């Protein structure tokens, strides 16, 4: 493998990116590794040597001064840190306790010392999924699938505080490119359950996505197509003709559909229990579909 020559040991970030690409290629075989979080990363020890080399070009414990995967080995039960009390804004209306165990998993997946290196592979997908499920679960009380911008600020900050109090990195917003606006509806014209359900064939969406088969979904994209279809449908919801007039190739068109896609994911997360929702979200996010095509 040319991996060693190409990757100086000082580029763990590049390594993480390459690792991501390789993981995605091997995704169908390695589903559990990703879906269940990083303590299972050492399951990779069981893949045949050539595959392992292909996946982990720069993770040689001897050549790398920066500990990378080898340090991930401690048992999931190991107490890495002592919990502290988070300082909350008191203004966020999301129900954090509804996703408490997901938050704990996320804190471990985004542990301070590893988060920057495992960002794309483990931490950020989990962080994003938890955020989607948090809003989705809370929508069962509020009816809202998005936060307004004030609440988005407070809630993202509270979420970060809670994670940090459980040992996660204090820099996750930057590491995972999450902005408070990502908690709003963006430019999607639909932001509540009632409007959503009157625009979308929700039972069909739920049937396509209620249970995502790890192996087949990446290839068949049944759920992903259903999500995209629903996102396109609600994207056309408000201004009728004006939104129809946006040519399909304009950035505005994509950003609107992107915002609507988040709304669809939150709705789905409100219809599933948090743990099933997590499996669905992690599986589809790792299929890495090119939605533009
Ligand atoms: C964490 O808790 C353990 C036992 O509960 C204690 O021995 C240790 O000193 C604590 N560490 C810190 C940094 O508070
Ligand atoms: C928050 O979620 C918990 C656990 O699901 C639930 O028991 C509680 O009633 C919820 N709180 C609110 C205000 O809805
Ligand atoms: C958050 O929103 C920004 C700007 O819209 C976007 O570039 C970024 O990809 C979003 N982050 C995620 C994780 O979706």
TrEMBL record:
Keywords: Signal. The keyword Transit peptide does not apply. Residues 1-28 form the signal peptide. It comes from the Eukaryota. Residues 89-237 form the SPARK domain. Pfam families: SPARK. InterPro entries: At1g61900-like, SPARK. GO terms for cellular component: plasma membrane. The keyword Signal applies. This is Putative GPI-anchored protein. It comes from Cocos nucifera (Coconut palm).
